[in-house]
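Supplementary Note 3. Input sequence used for the single-chain structure prediction.
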Amino acid sequence: MPQQRMTANERRAATSLATIMSLRMLGLFMILPVFSLYADQLQGATPILIGIAMGIYGLTQGIFQIPFGMLSDFYGRRKIITLGLIIFVLGSIIAAQSDSIYGMIIGRALQGVGAVGSTIIAMIADLTRENQRAKAMAIAGVTIGLSFSLAMMLGPLLGNWINLFWLAAIFGAIGIVLLFTWVPTPEKTTWHKDTEPDPKQFTHLLKNPDLMRLNSGIFLLHAILTASFVILPLSLENLAGLSGKQQWLLYLPILLIAFLLSIPCIIIAEKKHMVKTFFLGAIATLGMAELFLWIFAHELLLSALGLLLFFTAFSVLEAYLPSLVSKSAPPAQKGTALGIYSCSQFLGIFVGGSLGGWLYGAVGLTDVYLLCVALTILWLLIAFKMKQ
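The predicted structure, written as discrete structure tokens, is reproduced below.
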């Protein structure tokens, strides 16, 4: 087998582990477009508690992501991934059976505790040669990226027929089966400096100005995403007149068009060496989308245009950020840099959900969009000094 090609075992490792991660991501993100409508019916629900319930998994996932990866170095990847998936399934079942907002918060928190993303990445590294690892990680990245778009389309559609938390539990159980039937067994568990975080390097990398801007970016991007979806389903139903059962008809074409629009932006930016220009443009477009959603909350067609701008910009930014972190980090510290990046992302989910819920309860439904506009302006100021 030529050294420049992946072996069959490496392809199997990358695709199987990426599938397991994607199943978990589907379970987490399918609920996003309909969560506030669902949670609003629970006993004791208030805007702030709905926001916390939406974002709490980000906090617990950020806390447990790195410890799970470190435990896997000692106890083995498969055992820790199995444990994480079992906790995820348990959290999904609790959320599915909860009739109160407090039970929902507990279930969502447990979904996040099963934070096996870093462990799965480490297992991919165990099962691939160093010269093939970038390809394996690319396979995982593309699969996970597609799972987000698929989740956003399927959630509003499948939510009409099945409790999405039960579906998340089923996905987690399938992941456990795949882990023992499809994923190859590594010869040994090894620490990989290019994929795994080293806590000793945290302080040094946190002070790196380029990485600081990118970590702030992913924090703000996911804070904006979660805050927006605290109110978006309610806004579409109560103000634009589109019922929760019909919202999939809006998301499906918009997500497909946004995906098609984002691809040429990414390609042109790379070919023309205009990444910074397109990156800043995508942030500005994100802010414009939030303005559209605020101003035209009562107009369905213009709200749809705002959503199209939002998802197009989000797709571009979500594609650029991990790549830029990988390029900006010192070669021997990429694993740690990406670990900090992931924690920033999860913390943004929690802060966005909590802030969005609090603001919704304090001042009103659509004013959360103005918070998101302010966050995009802050992000533009931070990102303006990034290198070309």
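The first helix runs from residue 8 to 29. The mean pLDDT is 92.
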